[in-house]
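tool_call: predict_structure(chain=1)
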Amino acid sequence: MSTDAVSTTDMKPLDDITVIEVDSWMAAPSCGAILADMGATVIKVEPLSGDPMRDMMRPPKLPDELKDYDYQFDVDNRGKQSIAIDISHEQGAALLHKLCAGADVFLCNLLVERQERFGMDPETLLGVNPKLVHATFTGYGTTGPDAWRPGYDVTAFFGRSGLYDSMREGPDGVVPMARPAQGDHTAGMALYGAIVSALRLVERSGEGQVVESSLYETAVWTQATDYSVTAMDKAPLRQRARENLIIATANRYPCGDGKWVVFNMPNDSAWPLLCKTIGCEEALDDERFVDLRSRFRNMPDVVATIDAALAKKSRDEWGEIFDQAGLIWGPVLALHEVVVDPQADALGMFPTINSPEIGDYTTVANPMKFKTADVGPKGPHPKLGEHTTSILGDLGLSNEDIASLATNGVIGT
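tool_result:
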């Protein structure tokens, strides 16, 4: 082993990678945040007005000195640098090309037509840098009849993919509402996987790569178990309410304090153990529930029986009993309960970042861990154009050049 080898404890997986990012909102920026967590130098190119996601968070219930910090923008843009460029300006486009000439990855969420209009399409940028990984994120892909269509996670990920419909409890059930950016963050990880795989190909071949992912495609992949059958038989999915599920031991139920639990024991042999654990031994002798078929035919009564039994104790009281009995279950936690969950704490799911503005604050970890490499959030999000001057200086522009560009409205500093 070489004596000058570097220990992985001193390294980040992507600490020799530079990413130029032209995007907005949450999906593609979340991919950039993971790249930054993994050590990449991520330079976010923003319009002079900034990413529209800035300053759009819900007002947090915090003291005055903490509540004005943009925590939602931060989670998708932490650890990045910001340069403000008007890429529609000829000189702005030239600056972007200069940045890409020395980069490893170009990441954007612009539709194909806009990429071509601003000279950010794969052909143009690979002409600037033949070893570049060009990564595009869209709602519906870059080919096909709907490639032109803008997409958000609620429309492309949850709506178009069938996910919303499959989550309805029965054909007349209300379409549920997703929480903000669930689809964005899932699809962002898909694009991250494509980018790091493409970097491996560039390393081996010396040739640039063009990769992409979309909300639509990622959402279908998350439902691959359903689609493995539906893609073959084209049959509609049967939406089932709690009272119409096939197995009582794989369902969700409310407890006496209004909080819920979910069981996942798909083997029907767990039925006797469940009944004994919750004090429903009489259900074992009930002719309506004598076997799997009978319980399925009478599932509304089964659910009502279990609901009544669980109403006698709180969720957390039942939890201790379920664990002692060896049942496979989980609490349905509220978001504010998850952030203080001891298991989340043990896994480091809510790490701390230090900001010069507000000091230490809590953020959300990406779900990838390394045994020895140092990964994770490395700093707060940048202010708009915070690094414009330093980045352009690194490109060789003089102070006079930078001042002239600012005067002409090409850059913001």
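agent: Residues 140 and 146 are 6 Å apart (CA to CA). Proceeding to next step.
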